[in-house]
Structures are given as C-alpha cells and as structure tokens.
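Human: I hope this is not a bother. Would you mind checking the protein record under this note? Thank you for your patience.
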Amino acid sequence: MIVEYIQSALLLIAAFLVIVSAVGFISLSKDMKNVVYARIHIVGIFDIACVIAMIGLGQYLLAAIYFILAPFTAHAIANAFFKSEDVVNNVELNVVEEDVDNPNPFIVHRSKVQELENEDSEKLKTDDRFTISTLDIIEEE
C-alpha cells in the first residue's frame, strides 16, 4: 500500500514538472539571444520528469538508461548547433574567406590554365596524378 502511494506521488511530481516545463517552453521568445540552448535546458526538465515517471511505474532499468543517455544527446545537439549554426557565440563561423578570387571554381580563365601548363615546377613533374587538360571550343559562324 505504501508503494502505491510512493508511485502515485512520483507520477504527480512528474506530471507537475511536465506542465511547468511545457509552460516555460511555450513562453520562450524566439527573439532571445540563445533560444536553442534555453530550449535544450527546458527539455532537460522533461527528461528528469520522464525518469521520475519511469521510476514511479517500476521501470528502473529503462529509467537508468534514459538518465545516462539524455545528457549525452542534449550535449550532442548543443555542440552540433554551436559548430554549425551559432554565429552569435561561435566566432569562427563569422570569418569569411576573402582570398577567393574566383566565385565559380569550375570555370577557370584560359590564361590561368596556360600559366599552369607553362609552369616548370618540380611538384608538377613528380606528381603523376596532377594533370591539366583544356577544351577548346570554337564557334563557327
């Protein structure tokens, strides 16, 4: 009988945490500076509520696995966002390469190709994989 009361209390605590975190998740403004990280933090409260609910339902092994894996997944999501899209906090993403002189790397001016063909370089002689081929297109009138 006491076990049932403890399980009921744990489920009520989990339900309360889910409601509070859902309200917090919905009330977040999209214009915040670090909204993704704030959302990940709130989802952590969801995770803890789920662990408490699983313990209340008697699923101890599943609760332990979820308790161990949830922080790793949250960190992976935050790290992926930081390295790929977070231009506010990641300074490396704001660096733009200015030394690119050719906007289209597949179209090369004929003079540059001829310069490379005429260049007498030891690297070009020793590296058999490097070849330059040209295609002459002649327009007939």
About this structure: The longest helix spans residues 2-27. Helices lie at 2-27, 35-56, 60-84, 110-118, 122-126. Residues 87 and 93 are 6 Å apart (CA to CA). The chain has a mean pLDDT of 80.
